[in-house]
Structure formats: structure tokens, C-alpha cells
Amino acid sequence: MGYSAIYTITTLLNSVLYLINGIYEDPSGNWHELDRAIIILIGVVAFELCTKLTVRPLILKYIIAYVPSQLLAFVYIWFSGFREELAETAYKDIWICFTSLFILLSITSTIINIYKDKKSKIF
Known about the structure:
Blueprint: H1 3-20, H2 29-52, H3 58-80, H4 90-122
């Protein structure tokens, strides 16, 4: 799944959640969109780099990619605190969102790799 698709899905999901909660405008406006774009870029680049690693076992490969990229996301959130006051749950929120997306991508990638391996063994 490409960067644009992930960004679009997360933006739509965020908008739907705001509307469900009765919030009809994004309180942080354009900065929120740019922050989301940068955080997703960090995750996608880290995951792409992860797929290039030749580390075994597979879980170690994912951990090697996840830890520095999650730390980079935390650093980005910390720097954004100089621009505007952070929500009390900013770090928890980014951890939940970033980790959820990374796990989803990891599971998807693993399933695809298993399918490719089985398919290549057939032929």
C-alpha cells in the first residue's frame, strides 16, 4: 500500500471520527494535515527500509525498523510542541496510531510474503 493510499485512508478515518464526535472542523487545521503527512511518511519510509533488511527472524526485522521510526515520530511531536501546545495525550495518541499502522503493515507484508513463497514453490 502506497504512501498516498495510507494518507488518504487515515485522513478519511480521522474526519469520520471527528464528525461522529460532533466536531465539524479540525481544531488544528492545516498543521494537523501536515503533521499527519510527516508522521505517515516516517512510518512508510521506515517500513520500506524494513522490507529491504536481510535480518532473520522476521520479527527482529520489524523491531529494527519500528523502534527508531517510533522514536523519530516522538521527536517530531516534541518539536511540534514549539509551534503549538500539545494535547495531554499527544505521545500516547501518536504511539497508538503509529504502532497500529505499523502492525497492520507488518501483518499485511508477512501474509503477502508467505503467499509469494508458496506460489514460487508451486512453480
